Amino acid sequence: MNRYPAPAKLNLFLHVVGRRPDGYHLLQTLFRFLDYGDSLAIEPRRDGLVRLLNPLPGVPTEADLCFRAAGLLRQHTGCRQGADIALDKRLPMGGGLGGGSSDAATVLMALNRLWGLDLPGEELQALGLRLGADVPVFVFGRSAYAEGVGELLQPASLPPASYVVLIPPVQVATAAVFSHPGLTRDTPALKIPPLPEGCGHNDLEPVAVAVYPVIGEYLRWLGQHGDARMTGSGACVFAAFPDRAKAEAVFAQRPEGMQGFVADGVDIHPMYVDTGPPKG
């Protein structure tokens, strides 16, 4: 079977600047990919069946983002082919690292090629948005400054950095964080992108910490060593360091039982060359 990467992402900052009449939140955020993530083995089938060879425990097949991505692509194009999909899951669910969205984007990009569909990047991004607000940036394929609900993307070039990423032992329900009465939705919109790494903050962080206090514990520990922040709606937290050796040294000091990993930031999705999303 062909194997494809599904990298993690970080939100280097995440501001909630408003809310649309339909209830969706208006955001400004800076996405960065990591050289760490899930991977998928995908093999096309001629009989039209889409099969998950190792379904995620507790996730119904119809709700699985990989399954939904394949089905959406078939429906959109009228393609009659199918696929076997095996997911090697390394990224935590409910962690804010974009695991499910990245998996879905990789399925869209891989099957677009394997099925010979040749849809342009913009079309795949629009399909991805129907699966989740974070899917388009993975199809876009580059570190990006994002607005709207996360679908209005501008490429960003960021300085090299290594990250300590810690994984608190909770799964955050994104909808619960966004609907929390304590969430502020009026951060002044930033006017001049792209923005340097280290600017801004995460508006979702105080709410997530209030609901899941263990996130605050991880932030406090990591904050002794750097600018610790939560990514997405949580639960994972991270800090940037100028080189891998410094990040590894900090990670080695973590308390016993504290899970996580060290990864380098990358500006280009590893499938970007393969799928060739349009530039601009």
Tags for this model:
alpha+beta; Ribosomal Protein S5, domain 2; 10-stranded mixed sheet; 9 helices
Q: What does the model show?
A:
Strands 1, 2, 3, 4, 5, 6, 7, 8, 9 and 10 form a 10-stranded mixed sheet that branches. Strand 3 (50-52), helix 1 (65-77) and strand 4 (82-88) form a beta-alpha-beta unit. The protein has one domain: Ribosomal Protein S5, domain 2 (2-Layer Sandwich), CATH 3.30.230.10. With 280 residues, the chain is an alpha+beta fold. The chain is 29% helix and 27% strand. Residues 274-280 have low confidence and may be disordered. The protein has helices spanning 65-77, 99-114, 121-131, 135-140, 174-178, 205-211, 213-223, 244-252, 272-275; strands at 2-19, 25-45, 50-52, 82-88, 144-147, 152-155, 162-166, 229-230, 237-241, 260-266.
The Cα radius of gyration reads 18 Å
Give the domain tally.
1
User: What distance separates the N and C termini?
Assistant: 33 Å
| Stretches with pLDDT under 50, minimum 5 residues | 274-280
The CATH class is identified as: Alpha Beta
TL;DR?
This protein is an alpha+beta fold. It is built from nine helices and ten strands.
Write the topology of this structure:
Blueprint: E1 2-19, E2 25-45, E3 50-52, H1 65-77, E4 82-88, H2 99-114, H3 121-131, H4 135-140, E5 144-147, E6 152-155, E7 162-166, H5 174-178, H6 205-211, H7 213-223, E8 229-230, E9 237-241, H8 244-252, E10 260-266, H9 272-275
Parallel strand pairs: 3-4
Antiparallel strand pairs: 1-2, 2-4, 2-5, 2-10, 5-6, 7-9, 7-10, 8-9
